[in-house]
């Protein structure tokens, strides 16, 4: 069965860094796009960064460009999100998701979702 597990969240001070991991199993990793999404209290879930696991094509939301980096470790069936220069407004539950095809970065396109990991950035 398709399984996705997000991890690596925690509490960090503004300006700090976190590295999130999305461990995938149950499907051919390189045939799928993996996306990171986040949802803060009172807000809709939004795309953060997405990647084509096989090709490496990436997308970043404007709000995180220059601060976040997505990468894929195919041999480990894992996608990472390196988050630097974190801001309080980055605080949210971060989810990873998967679907076949190009790394489109909107919620409705993804079929498979993992459990979220909480990121809290203090000022």
- Rounded to the nearest angstrom, the radius of gyration is 13 Å
Query: What gross morphology would you assign?
Result: globular
Please count the helical segments: 0
What is the terminal separation in angstroms?
40 Å
Class by alpha and beta content: mainly beta
Describe the structure.
- With 123 residues, the protein is mostly beta strands.
- The chain is built from no helices and eleven strands.
- The chain has strands at 3-7, 11-13, 18-25, 32-39, 46-52, 58-60, 68-73, 78-83, 92-100, 112-113, 117-122.
- Strand 4 and strand 5 form a beta hairpin.
- The radius of gyration is 13 Å and the shape is globular.
- The termini are far apart.
What distinguishing features does this structure have?
single chain, 123 residues, mainly beta, seven-stranded mixed beta sheet, 11 strands, 51% strand, globular
Chain-wise SSE layout:
Layout: E1 3-7, E2 11-13, E3 18-25, E4 32-39, E5 46-52, E6 58-60, E7 68-73, E8 78-83, E9 92-100, E10 112-113, E11 117-122
Offer a quick outline of the entry.
The protein is mostly beta strands and 123 residues long. The protein has no helices and eleven strands.
């Amino acid at each position: 069965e398709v399984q996705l597990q997000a991890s690596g969240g925690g509490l960090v001070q503004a300006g700090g860094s976190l590295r999130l991991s999305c461990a995938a199993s149950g499907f051919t990793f390189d045939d799928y796009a993996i996306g990171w999404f986040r949802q803060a209290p009172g807000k809709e879930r939004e795309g953060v960064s997405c990647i084509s696991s096989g090709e490496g094509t990436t997308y970043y939301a404007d709000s995180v460009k220059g601060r976040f980096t997505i990468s894929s470790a195919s041999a480990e069936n894992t996608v990472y999100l390196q988050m630097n220069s974190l801001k309080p407004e980055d605080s949210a539950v971060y989810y990873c998701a998967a679907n076949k095809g190009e790394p489109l970065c909107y919620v409705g396109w993804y079929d498979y979702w993992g459990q979220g990991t909480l990121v809290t950035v203090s000022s």
